[in-house]
Amino acid sequence: MNLPNKLTILRMIMIPFVLLFMLPVPFATELFSGWNQFIADWGMLVAVILFSLASLTDMLDGKIARSRNIVTNLGKFLDPIADKMLVISILIALVQTGRVHAIVTIIIIMREFMVTGIRLLASDHGVVIAASNVGKAKTVTQMIAIIWLMIEPILIKILSLSGAAASAVIWVGNIAVLIAVVMTLVSGYDYLRKNLSFLKS
Questions:
Q1: Which of 44, 70, 122, 195 is surrounded by the fewest CB atoms within 10 Å?
Q2: CA dihedral 71, 77, 80, 84 (to 10 degrees)
Q3: 47-57 confidence digits (pLDDT tens)
Q4: Are residues 112 and 184 in contact, defined by beta-carbon separation less than 8 angstroms?
């Protein structure tokens, strides 16, 4: 297995560790009270660092594969799956924390189901569809939005923001999420338009 594919798999492996520092332990709360307090105070800081590193592997694996001319069908298959797993997992966690509305996550998941269905149809014809530039831009906007949402409570706490200042930080996050949702819809349409032949066949 080449280096880009190893980085892609590493991105998948990092997902549970990001979640570990995002969400408190929901059972035996007395036993894990110290850990849960750490999660409440600084867990998101660790989580956003891990998420940022995982997002960085998304940029590196493609660049390395293209620069070394080692693009493989396995890489084309695994890379978008790793992106979907990372983004959707963290978005669901943000829904649980109350920061992201469930509709945002539902739109993104529905788009990914549609794309996965088309990929399966394409694979029946022996075609492995790589991520498009629009799809990559979509992933970047989603990751930027998620990073900002994770940073929000850290900024508000460290800078002791309140009132209008805290609201401004949150509104930046809302705008970032809106851009990510729009790009999700645009990329979904672009993907459907370009691969409509597989549906017709």
A1: 70
A2: -150
A3: 999 999 999 98
A4: no
Rounded to a whole number, what is the largest CA-CA distance in the chain? Answer: 59
Q: Which two tokens stand for residue 105?
A: 């996550």
Q: Where does residue 125 rank: exposed (0-12), middle (13-18), buried (19+ CB within 10 A)?
A: exposed
Structure tokens at 158: 């460290």
Is the separation of the CB atoms in 60 and 119 below 8 Å? no
Question: Over the stretch 131-149, which tens digit does the pLDDT of each residue have?
Answer: 678 888 998 999 999 999 9
- Measure the CA–CA gap between 114 and 188, rounded to whole angstroms: 8
- What contacts 38, CB < 8 A, 6 or more positions away? none
DSSP string spanning the chain?
--HHHHHHHHHHHHHHHHHHHHS---S-TTTTHHHHHHIIIIIHHHHHHHHHHHHHHHHHHHHHHHHTT---HHHHHHHHHHHHHHHHHHHHHHHHHTSS-HHHHHHHHHHHHHHHHHHHHHHHTT--PPPPHHHHHHHHHHHHHHHHHHHHHHHHHHTT--HHHHHHHHHHHHHHHHHHHHHHHHHHHHHHHHTHHHHH-
Neighbouring CB atoms inside 10 A of 50's CB total 19
Structural domains in the chain, sorted by start: 3-200 (1.20.120)
